[in-house]
Amino acid sequence: MPRPRTLASSLVVSLLLAGTALAGTRPIGPDDIAIVKSVADPQVDPTGTWVAYTVSATDVKGDKTNSHLWMARWDGSRTVQLTSRKGESEAKPRFSPDGRFLAFISSRGDAHDADQLWLMDRAGGEGARLPGIIGSVSDIAWSPDSRTIALVVLDPDPDKKADADSDADTTTPSPAKPGTASPLTTDPSVAVPAARGRAEEAETKKHDDEKPKPIVIDRFQFKQDIDGYLRTRRQRLWIYDIATHVARRLTTGDFDEQLPAWSPDGTRIAFTSHRDVDPDRNYDSNLYLAAVASAPVEPHSLTTFSGADNSPEWSSYPAWSPDGNRIAYLQGGAPQLFSYGVHTLAVVPANGGVPTVLTPALDRNVSDPVWSADGKSIRFLVEDDETVRIAQVGAAGGTVRSVADGFRVFSAPSRAKGDALSVLVSTPSAPPEVYAVERGGALRQLSHHNDAWLRDVAIAPVTRTVLTSKDGTSVHGFIVIPPGAVAKPLPTVLFNHGGPQAQFDAGFNMSWQIFAGHGYAVVSTNPRGSTGRGESYAKALFGDWGGPAVPDALAAVDDAVARRIADPGRLYVGGWSYGAMLTNYLIASDTRFKAAVSGASIGNALAGYGTDQYIRDYEAELGTPWANMDKWLKVSYPFYHNDRIVTPTLFMGGEKDFNVPLLNSEQMYQALKSRNIPAELVIYPGEFHGLKRPSFLADRMRRWLAWYDGHGGL
Questions:
Q1: Cα separation of 222 and 500, whole Å?
Q2: Which residue, 662, 640, 644, is CA-closest to 653?
Q3: CA-to-CA distance for 239 and 151, rounded, in angstroms?
Q4: Residue partners of 166: CB distance under 8 A and separation at least 6
Q5: Is the pLDDT at 193 greater than 50, yes or no?
Q6: What is the DSSP pairing of strand 26-27 with strand 457-458?
Q7: 583-616 pLDDT tens trace
Q8: Which element (helix H / strand E) includes 70?
Q9: Are residues 42 and 69 in contact, defined by beta-carbon separation less than 8 angstroms?
Q10: What is the pTM of this model?
Q11: How far apart are CA 619 and CA 628, in angstroms?
């Protein structure tokens, strides 16, 4: 196809990283992936004195990432590491309301690698695993009186032995029961015959347990990345008594339940669930309320909207007002638009009633509501045109005003004393760290886990751009220039984001920095289909996955060429997930790129039906293939018209990916090989849709750079 015409554009906003590129002299490369630490999940203690959070770091020798618990003082005077057990990880730090304990989850010592509930006494000592829980714990929430904890527990695998206590991590032997030999007995004459019989019986049972069993499926959606084949296992809400170590179900019914939030008086729990007769067939999650009783109860539905209310995909907890009369939550967009629709902030009476949408005119996705101490207003996050800011609205609605904004990304707010917040803040020049947001919106950094690394490396400057697509639509994006680059034009990578319902934003982007550190300029856009600019902009891609995104992305390349930043003879393209799908659409639409990298992509949508996790999305957006073949073929042109592709392409993917299964990359690779177009396929063993193994993460970037270099890049 001919190239789109060169498009007029304007450079908007000055360099965003004033002085940052001078922080160090070493360019960032693939090995830096293992150096940068990931800070997450800040939680303020009841006194407002400390903030607990997690720090993930790479164990290079073990080729894995471990996460440990840390605390920083609110005044910034001290930082301490709470856990450090080698080879283990901890997550979800949660302070008890009385301030005595810090609960967390970890799979330490568990034979089935299932996460369990752990408790650390803040007076000192290591954490202890709490017994009596069968299954894997994924979330925890303390009751206001600190006596019980709400747990979200995944049912145990029916094909594996379930034992709540057999894998408990202990440092001393259990005391012997009366009338039995001590575990420390060394006399070989004690109970040897019985022991031998038990050992033989145990060995036989172990052999039977290890035999593979058939996987029987009868669900509509039967696959999920990482989880694998879906059967009858559910994530259920349990109540755990700290004193008695007894866990009991909160609710009746056979449904998934997530995001628990206790009422201020401790008598009820609000949560998200999808309790349709066949939850796999629609997006109708709702907010539910259950009384905390001695026996499981039938929950009451607080919302009845047919779309996604407080969807677990958004990881945004319902928030009780201080007086316990109202609950703030997220109301989804139009059901037929699913992820393309904008979710809004709403409030519903805790005793039932009609919800009130507080942000009807905002036209931006919101999340993470936090009530003010007096219950008169609510603060929340707003995804807004390449940024995420903190905003506030009255509890009855009204004008939305910014509390803290700027060209950065706020996330994970946790309420502190005096209506202050702890948050994560990331910028184009620095990975996320924990910050305090004072009541007036002033920011103060509390954690500094990447400071030493930032002093050592040269950060590539990032510039925002606004350009015009072929049909006149305004498209926003970024240009990243190699640190210290003087000579232009430069070899340039068009790097596409995943989703498509996502956005490139003002957060730190390691891929951009690695490309730039190697010597490539980077062009990235938020083409139509991206979030952050309203529902109409996002839904423009509905049912047309290449559609307007192709000219939008090409417009950014034309812009960079017109300003003599990009060398038109050395243009490259790539992405992962939808970013790779867009790459496939681009190389099937335009021949300007010298090489492409397509990671975890699909070119033939028909191959995805029934083989990946998106069955609801497919049928909502395209209908069934037998009834709407024209729509399916329209979005599958990279495969069915691969004869248009002349670009040498490297395909990559995880062996166990159920999100966009490897067969899709294999098909595209095979098609290009059939036509003698240079192509290569790299498969990462044991990996899912998002790669986790540190050595593979670095390997992916090395291969990415080598592929471009090998086709005239550097």
A1: 23
A2: 662
A3: 6
A4: 111
A5: no
A6: parallel
A7: 999 999 999 999 999 999 999 999 999 999 999 9
A8: strand 64-73
A9: no
A10: 0.91
A11: 10
